[in-house]
Each structure stands twice: as C-alpha cells, then as structure tokens.
Amino acid sequence: MVLPFLLTGAVICFDRIVRRMGRAVLPSGVLPHEVLLLAVIAILTHPLLDTLNTYGVRWLMPVRGDWYYGDALFIVDPWLWLVLVLGVVASRGRRSARGLKTAGGRPARIALAVGTAYVAAMVCSGVAARSIARRELEALGGAPVERLMVGPRPLTPFVRQVVAVQGHRYLVGVFRWFARPHVQGLRTFPRPGPDDPVLAAARATPLGRRFLGWARFPTVQEEPAPGGTRMHLIDLRYADRPGGGFGSVTVAAASPPPASGPPPGTRRASTRGGTAAPPR
C-alpha cells in the first residue's frame, strides 16, 4: 500500500531535479497534485479489483488470514486491459496547427465507462452462473454443495471453470452459457479431511504450510520416494495434476524410523503406580 506513494514521490523528485539542472527540453507536464491523486486511485482500486478474481485478497490481515474471492474477473483479464490500453493510447495529446498539445480526455472517459460496464456484467454473470451450477450439481445427487467456485477463464467470458466441494470429494468441470446442461465434463478428485495424515505431514514442512494456507481447494497425491514420501499438493483452481505449474507444489517427508522394542528376553517396563523405570 505504501509503494504507490513512494513511487509518486520518486517521480516528483526526479522531475524537480531535472528541471533544476536545466536539462528539460520542454516545460514539465508533471503536476504533483495529479500524480498524488493517481496514486490514491491506484491504492483504492487495486485491492478492489484483486478481490474480483479467483486469487482473492486477505482484507482482515494481520488480524485474520481469511481469503475473500469475487470469482468475476480473470487475474489478468485481457479484455479489461485491452479497453484501458486503448483508452490511454487514444487519449494521448495531439499537436494542433500551432504546435500546442491538445488534451484527449474523452477517449479515456469512454474507456473507463466501457471497462466499468464490463466488470459489472462479469459480476452479474458470475452470480447467475453460480446459482445455476449449484442447482445442476445438486440435482445429480449426493451431498449438498458446501463451497463452489464458478470462476472466469482468460479469453472467453461465456465459459467458466467450476470447482465444487461435495462431501468427501471435489467436482471439477466447465460451465458453458450456451450449452444444456450448463455444467459439463465433471471430474472427481479426493478431498482430504482436516485430520488426514498425509495432509498433516505436508503441513509440517515450510513449503507445504505456506501452500496450504493459500490453497482454496487443496488435494494431495502421495507416492513413495527414496528415504521417505513425496507428496504432491494441488490447488484445483489452477491445476489438476502434479507439476501443473502455478497451482501445485511437491514436498518430501522422511519416513519415520521403525519402532524399536525391548531386546529379546527382557520385560517391558511397568508404568503402573508412577514413572516407568528403564529396562535393565
């Protein structure tokens, strides 16, 4: 949150230094109050836009680490970026016949209006798709849907990714607005319980603990490895198999040493009536 203000201060200081050194070819167009206003807008809108995607924001940090997700926009939404970039390019000042630079604020305002309308449409689309997906999944039978994500995909706003928590399993599929039924291609993944020993072993490692604190729909796959166990942690938001890149990590845990019993011919120490005495 402090970084935009620091960058703003750096831009203003650089502008003042260049002007004092007399190296500025043209009069400076940097206005401190406008740059500060831009920094404030960036600070206010950045976390709000981040909340609208599937990655989420922890608004209550450092008091609580809960994540909040909007599931409306892709993390780097290409259509929103395209609209805003076109607005910036079209708003660049043009030189008139007298050599003066004219302002072009109208394209920027149009781009902001179009971008805002697009965001609102994606939010409404996400709410409607979530309701339809829940209804269709529960109609298939089984336990009620506990948690549900109907998140956007990068290029088409008419196709969304579905991840649902239903009992001891995850359901992963695709939501298509122009298909019946809307939810298709369902696949099932195991949902580990909070007391799952494999998940507990993964959480005991620093990488596993960080990943599971971030993951929204974590599943785990275990395989033997030399000297221990290799555990593949997968967040079904972004991956569906080990080595899927952004949404998966692999951690290793050493095998526990074999339990050593008393030597043959010795009696097990008794713990009745006080502290156990070591075997002789």
Write a structural description.
This protein is of the alpha+beta class and 280 residues long. It contains six helices and nine strands, in the order αααββαββββααβββ. The chain has a four-stranded antiparallel β-sheet. Helix 1 (3-21) packs antiparallel against helix 2 and helix 3 runs antiparallel to helix 4 (105-139). It is globular and about 70 Å long. Mean pLDDT is 82; it is low at 95-100 and 266-280.
Key traits:
single chain; 280 residues; alpha+beta; 4-stranded antiparallel β-sheet; 3-stranded antiparallel β-sheet; 6 helices; 9 strands; 37% helix; globular; disordered C terminus
Task: Please write out the topology.
Layout: H1 3-21, H2 32-51, H3 78-91, E1 94-95, E2 101-102, H4 105-139, E3 145-152, E4 159-166, E5 169-176, E6 183-190, H5 197-203, H6 206-214, E7 218-225, E8 228-235, E9 248-254
Antiparallel strand pairs: 1-2, 3-4, 4-5, 5-6, 7-8, 8-9
Helix pairs in contact: 1-2, 3-4
